[in-house]
Every structure is written in C-alpha cells, then in structure tokens.
Write a structure and sequence with these properties.
The complex is a heterodimer.
Chain A: H1 15-25, H2 36-42, H3 46-75, H4 84-106, H5 108-114, H6 118-121, H7 125-136, H8 141-172, H9 180-200
Helix pairs in contact in A: 1-8, 3-4, 3-7, 3-8, 4-5, 4-7, 7-8, 8-9
Chain B: H1 6-14, H2 27-32, H3 37-60, H4 70-92, H5 94-100, H6 111-121, H7 126-156, E1 158-167, E2 170-181, H8 193-221
Antiparallel strand pairs in B: 1-2
Classes of the chains: A mainly alpha, B mainly alpha.
Chain lengths: 203, 226
C-alpha cells in the first residue's frame, strides 16, 4: 500500500547506489571530511581502529533508527526544525551513555573491546553528520538506515586501511612520515582513488 | 596560577596552542570548507562566534555546574550558540550558508570548542576565558585562511581576498582588490578532497621539519653531541 503521508517517500528508491555512495563516492572520512579527529587519533594500530570502527558503525545505525521518527513525527509537525541539532545531539549522547552502561553491566569482554571507544563517539562529527544528512537528503526511513550503515562501513574500511599503512610506516622506520602526517598522505591517496575512480564509473 | 596577561593569553592561543597544527583538533571543517578563501573566512567567523559565547557562559557558570553532568551542560550551551549562528547565517548570508552546509550545525561537535570549555573555561574566570577564545579563534582563522588560500590559488589559478563588511548591498562578503593570479594551469585536484589532505599533510610536514631543525639547533647550542 502506498502511504502518501510518509515523509521523504520515494517509490523507486534504489538502496544499492545509496550504499555505494556512502561507502565510496561520498565516503565520510575521505570525501565528506567527517570524523577526522578519530581518524587521526585512533589509527595508530589496527586493534584500536577495529574497535572504533565497530563502535561507530553500530552507533551510526542506531542513531539513524532513533532520530528519524523524532524528526518526522515530533519536530516537523510542530515546526520545531530549528531544534534539530540540539535534539539529535542529546539523543545520540544519551543513547551512547545507555549502551555504555548496558554492556559494562552485562558483557565485560565486549566492554573491553568496544566500550572504551563509546564516550569518544557522542562527540564524533560523523555520527551527528549522518543524522543531519539523512534529514537534509530527505531519505525515507529505510534509506536513512541503509545510508547510515553504509557510511559506517565506509568509515571502517578507511580506518583499517590507514591503520595498516601507519603500522607499516613504523615497521619500516620511515621517521619523517610517522604519526598523523603519514595518515594524511595515506588518506590523500585513498581519496584520489575514491574521487577519480568512482566518478568515472556510473552506477 | 601566576599572573596571566590578556594579550599573552591571546598569543598563546594563536601559536603555542594552535588548534589545528599543535592540538590537531577540529580537522573536519578545516579540510571540508577550505575550498576558497571566502569559505574559510565564513567558517572561522561562525566558529569564533560560537567559541566566544561558549567560553563566556561556561566560565560564568563554572561554580554551579555539577562536575558529573558538565559535558551535557557544555553541549547545551554550545548548541544554543550554534543554533543562533545557523539562523543568523541563513537569514543574512544565504550564499555562505549554502557553501558551509552541514558544517555549521557540526560546530557543536567541534572538538576545539568542547576541548577549550573543558580544559580552560571551566577552570578560569571570565576575562581570561575571553582572551583564550579570541586567541584560539584567531589561530583557527589563520589556519583556515592559509589552507583556503593555498587551495584556491593552486586549484583555480587565482586568489580573491574577501572581507565581511557592511556596504551598499548590506552586510555581505565584499571582494578586496583584484584577484592575485599565478601563471600556471590550475590543478583542479587541489579543490577536490584529495587536495585538502595533500595541503594539510604538506603543511604539517613543513612545520615538523622546521620544528626538528629548531630543536637540533637548540641541542647543539647546549653542547649536546649528536
């Protein structure tokens, strides 16, 4: 049944291009420049970058699930759109806090691998960015969730790849490019690939 | 803490605590909106407004803020100013609002603002906090303008300086003088995302080399054998 009042409803919304967009063409780290602080700070080794990527993907998807109904059923009908930033940040921060409590209480191993990254996420611009973009792009509920998940995957592969490059740089003893300078140059090359390759191949 | 002069605090924010090159914070807008000089200026003005407002308020209520919930309190204060600047830009500078896009609301999660609220404004009186905000804002602005100028110059082959002024067409960004041109083929890559990474990577490499040289000279002066 076609529900006309559903906001942002598009009859032929193709989900695959949305995922590819979020993962490559509009990669959050490389093209949209969101979440760079964690990119510089946490790609020192692959263990931390793995934990952070998992945590970010999870929180992104869950925030998309939580914020979409709030925006379309609470803020928009009441013409309170100017409150979106404040609302979204509160929802994300309290959700992250809640998850931290829950996994701390029920799953100490998971907390050790994931929990320590959670406090870093409530102020990660990638998470707030994905929910703001969902609203800006007028995505439907399904599309916004898929977009958030794809964005998380895109964030993850860049984090892991950069961590690998940085570990290699340390192993080879390339002193000058150690630290975040190496991360920036690695990001530049990956951005070149993403921007030039995926702008040629049309989906 | 010892006596701190107002001007000294400002200069510390520009050089010793430079938000981008020393603290490596607030990178997202630094790279995302610096495709031109004008965008860099717009972003840094919006940032300065939020930074100043947040530092003043955080510092003014620092004695009654319960330590346990200080981060949410900071976020609410910052959010208020961000919403204000968002609405002001939308009303008075629509082209700039379009160009900056979601990076205006994203000032909320800019690590610099939260970082200064936590590390400085929450522990110092209002006046030094204002100095700190001014210094950090100027430091941030210089970085954004530097990166914006480099990218605009090499990406389009010319550099147009602008300034926020009130003139015949109301308050908007007016061009200053003629654009500076260089006789090269513009490298479009510089205004695309890889160009941003290249610019900041090269600048940081440059500063690192200069810093290393300086340290070496210092060590040699102290008579350390290398």
């Amino acid at each position: 049944m076609m529900d006309i009042v559903t906001p942002g409803y598009m009859p032929h919304e193709a989900l695959f291009p949305i995922v590819v967009d979020a993962m490559f063409t509009k990669n959050f780290l490389l093209v949209m420049f969101l979440g760079l602080c964690s990119f510089v700070g946490l790609t020192t080794n692959s263990e931390t970058s793995k934990g952070m990527s998992m945590a970010v993907t999870f929180v992104m998807t869950m925030s998309a699930i939580l914020t979409w109904p709030i925006f379309y059923y609470l803020l928009k009908p009441n013409h309170l759109m100017f409150l979106q930033t404040i609302c979204f940040i509160l929802v994300i921060a309290s959700f992250v806090q809640l998850v931290e409590f829950i996994i701390h209480r029920y799953s100490p191993p998971l907390y050790r691998s994931l929990g320590i990254y959670l406090p870093l996420i409530s102020t990660n611009c990638a998470v707030l960015g994905v929910v703001l973009l969902n609203v800006k792009e007028d995505f439907s509920y399904g599309a916004s969730i898929v977009y958030a998940f794809g964005a998380g995957l895109g964030y993850s592969w860049v984090m892991l790849a950069t961590a690998a490059v940085r570990e290699k740089l340390i192993m080879r003893g390339v002193d000058l490019f150690n630290g975040f300078i190496g991360a920036f140059f690695a990001a530049m090359m990956m951005a070149l690939i993403v921007v030039s390759y995926f702008s040629v191949v049309k989906l | 803490m010892a006596e701190k002069s107002f001007v000294g605090e400002i200069i510390r924010g520009i050089i010793k605590d430079n938000p981008v090159f020393v603290l490596v914070l607030g990178l997202c807008p630094t790279l995302a909106v610096t495709t031109s000089f004008a965008n860099g200026l717009g972003m840094s003005l919006a940032f300065a407004f939020v930074m100043l407002g947040s530092n003043i308020f955080v510092s003014a209520i620092r004695k009654i803020t319960p330590p346990g919930v200080r981060i949410p309190v900071f976020l609410l204060i910052i959010c208020t100013f961000v919403t204000m600047v968002d609405m002001l830009l939308e009303a008075y500078l629509p082209p700039m609002y379009e160009a900056l896009g979601i990076f205006v609301p994203l000032i909320v999660v800019n690590c610099i603002v939260i970082g200064r609220a936590e590390a400085y404004a929450n522990r110092n009186p209002v006046l030094p906090s204002i100095a700190d905000a001014i210094g950090i804002s100027i430091g941030y602005m210089l970085v954004l303008l530097l990166i914006g100028s480099i990218r605009e110059l090499f990406g389009t082959g010319k550099l147009q300086l602008v300034m926020l002024m009130s003139g015949v067409e109301g308050i908007k960004f007016y061009n200053i003088g003629n654009p500076l041109t260089i006789p090269i083929d513009p490298a479009v890559m510089m205004i695309t995302p890889p160009g941003a990474f290249l610019t900041i990577g090269t600048l940081m490499l440059l500063f690192k080399i200069i810093g290393d040289r300086k340290r070496m000279r210092q060590l040699r002066k102290e008579g350390v054998e290398l």
